[in-house]
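Narrative summary of target 7.
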Amino acid sequence: MNNTLRNTINLFLGFLFFAALSNVSAGLKEGDCEVCIKTVEKFANTLEEAVKKDPKAIETEFRKYCKTTKNKENRFCYYLGGLEESATGILGELSKPISWSMPAEKICEKLKKKDVQICDLKFDKQIDLNTVDLKKLKVRDLKKILSDWDETCEGCIEKSDYIKRIEELKPLYASSGSAKSEL
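Modeled conformation, tokenized:
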């Protein structure tokens, strides 16, 4: 073989080697998969020891758990197939590792390889209802506060109507120690 062909082959092999190395992930970064990790930990803590050993029982319990979720956790359930309306399901990728007592971070790392959307979920920022100026929030955010409280604002048209309704309900929801709402 002549030197140019040999150099070309070596260059090509070197390129393949570095391309293969770049595809190896170094695990999750700080802040990655926050919804996944917190939801998996929360769910795993609700399981009884007998259920934790059986992947099928874990899947059944996860479907029950998903019926009570809201917002980002509900979206996470949708992606995994824990909801009836889920298009696909990869619950086995969750239930088997839980039955092996795998940590939530590792489970989410494996789930990320199956569906990247799972790790794209982020929790909404928290606001302190006692210190925030409701007049500076957008109507969308005011509606979200009411929605989180499972309340409605009948006949509300203007921003001031929503603020008035939140102020009426604030003693019921915000006075109980933690006056924070997700936005």
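The domain at 34-120 is CATH 1.10.225.10 (NK-Lysin).
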